[in-house]
Amino acid sequence: MRRVNVGAALVALVGAVAMTACGSPKVRTGVTPDVQMSEALALFHRGKFEDALTGFRRIVFELQPGDPALAEARYYSAECQFQEGLLVEAAHAFRDVADQSPESPFAPLALLRAGDANLRTWRDPELDPTPGQTALAIYQELVGRYPGTEAASRAQIRVQELNNEFAAKAYQNGLFYLKNRKAYDSGIIYFKDVIANYPDSKYVAPALLRLAETYAIIGYGDELKEVCGTLRRFHPAEAASARSCPPDSTTSAAH
């Protein structure tokens, strides 16, 4: 009678149970990755994200490195995590898609969604701007790496929105120091931040006006002339109402 090595059998059994408990995908024999992809996508579009995530992970487990379908499976895995509210995990997963498969058509969209995931975690802009800054950097990277794509066009809109939001915050901080604290140097720093870092935002002209006002109050004549010259050159409509600016010497000389 053949003797069974009970110890070895137990080790094998425990190993199998551990693999199952850790959520390792089960290989479905006789079912091609194409069929599995169709099934997982059907689950995804029906809103069954947890089941779809299992399917996409199984595909990733079974495909060979370099298979073009890997990027798609990884992208939808990340999308499932996003839809399930696992935003930090989704942000990393989307980032991995773009980094590991930069030539894939899913790479631009993955970068867009990585930015979106970071933006969704931005719960307290007043205290911690980091998630918003990270999202902004990702959107800008997308525009630079994949110009002309639909994802890049959508990212550009988000860049403008975020720039306006950051500019608004800096501008409000400058007003606070100017109006409430009379801390002119601090106000100048914030107004210059708006002008230097968010040049396409709608707060540039107001920041220049407040700079002119501040320089007039503290008697910085040379700086006042420079700011007023910038206003007249790039924002003539606002310059016309800038009470802090002295008359334009060029116009006066012409008359």
Summarize it.
The protein is mainly alpha-helical and 255 residues long.
Reported by name, the CATH topology of one domain is: Serine Threonine Protein Phosphatase 5, Tetratricopeptide repeat
Please indicate the percent range of residues in DSSP E strands (runs of 2 or more): under 5%
Rg calculated over all Cα atoms: 28 Å
Low-confidence residue ranges? 1-27
The SSE order reads HHHHHHHHHHHHH
CATH architecture of one domain: Alpha Horseshoe
Overall, the morphology is elongated
State the distance separating the first and last CA atoms. 119 Å
Biggest beta sheet summary: none
Question: Could you explain the architecture of this structure?
Answer:
- The chain is mainly α and 255 residues long.
- The chain has a domain at 166-245: Alpha Horseshoe (Serine Threonine Protein Phosphatase 5, Tetratricopeptide repeat), CATH 1.25.40.10.
- It contains 13 helices and no strands.
- The chain starts with 5 loop residues before the first helix and ends with a helix.
